[in-house]
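Because showing beats explaining, we let one protein speak, sequence and backbone structure tokens together, and leave readers to judge.
___
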Amino acid sequence: MGFLRIRRNLDIVEFSDSETEAYLRKTILATHLDEIETKGKNHYFKCLKNNAILTVNSHTFTIITAKIINKN
């Protein structure tokens, strides 16, 4: 269920689960440290390279949701 929502939000609906996981991993690794914001119990990874913001739970390190920064 989570992969479906993330793929839809990032407009990568053609990706498989493993491709989505690899994309999310690359997005997290491509995010500069100064673009990671912590608010409450969540970390927000703002990756300009992939045009995405990932919301990650700070306790479980699971991706809660993702969204596109700018829709062109």
